Amino acid sequence: MTSPGSTPPPGGDPGEVALGHLTGPDGLGDRVDAALAGGAARVVATHDADDDALAWAAARAGLRREGVLRGVLVGGRRRDVALVARLAGDPDPASDALPALTPLFPASVLAAGLVLRDHRGRVLLLRTSYKVPWEVPGGFVEAAESLGGAAAREGREELGLDLTVGRLLVLDRCPGDASRPGRLLALLDGGVHDDDLPGRCTFVDGEVLEAAWCTPTEVRARTGPGLAARVAAAVAVLDADDPAPALLVEGRPGR
Q1: C-beta separation of 239 from 233 below 8 A
Q2: First to last CA, the chain
Q3: 3-state secondary structure labels for all residues of 83-136
Q4: Can you say whether the dihedral through the CA atoms of 63, 67, 70, 73 is positive or negative?
Q5: What is the DSSP code string of 187-201?
Q6: For residue 98, how many other CB atoms are within 10 A of its CB?
Q7: Which helix (H) or strand (E) holds 20?
Q8: Which terminus, N or C, of the chain has the lesser number of Cβ atoms within 10 Å?
Q9: 208: which strand partners?
């Protein structure tokens, strides 16, 4: 089904068949198959971005989500719509629906940070140029990187040091919402170092301004509540010599 007066995505491609704005799943798979059987190279449609049931129906018809168009005029009012399409060379959803379904699965970004301590138990924090709360060394895990590999790379990029990365200490799951993806935030053991380590750091790109050893009180004062909770959990794991990492949900114990 399509909405009367709907505004399909810009066309003009003779090999593209636009189904318009979808309002229901009835016969959708048959319509897509018929368009491809008729020689279409691409079948495209839109549906309300917040219509989860229709999103899954479109995916089962092999229509992959390509993005969200904001403020599109549909049926006399503006709304956010999902742009979906299936190409002639895409897998048949009857035998392999996963490529079309995958964009609908909950997405999370993965980040790895390092807990470096001195012989007095203080933790290394960084003052950066792009945010007020201080941070531990770390960043997002790139494609094909391991947690340890990402943490080691961030140590080189942010501190100018080659660090030995140890075991996983904390994994904190922070669910996402419509405006941001979920996050999996990991802290790994960066080892115990001498007092002079901050002075040996090299900051090359202006992102990091200062590195300093911080007591537990200073960690709580200088970081956001989420990172403070993760650092405290990491230190507790290290102090207890616990072989299992702490599992948190938004900084609180959970699974």
Answers
A1: no
A2: 42
A3: EEEEECCCCCCCCCCHHHHHHHCCCEEEEEEEEEEECCCCEEEEEECCCCCCEC
A4: negative
A5: EEEEEEE-TTHHHH-
A6: 10
A7: strand 16-22
A8: C
A9: 128
Q: Are 190 and 166 in contact (CB under 8 A)?
A: yes
Question: How many residues appear in the chain?
Answer: 255
Tokens for 27? Answer: 């016969």
Tens digits of residue pLDDT in 175-184: 877 667 789 9
Which domains, ranges and CATH numbers included, belong to the chain?
A: 16-103 (3.40.630.30), 108-253 (3.90.79.10)
pLDDT at 5: 40
In 3-state terms, what secondary structure has residue 240? helix
- Amino acid 76 reads G
Question: Each residue of 170-194: b (16+ CB within 10 Å) or e?
Answer: bbbebeeeeeeeebebbbbbbeebe
pTM attached to this predicted model: 0.69
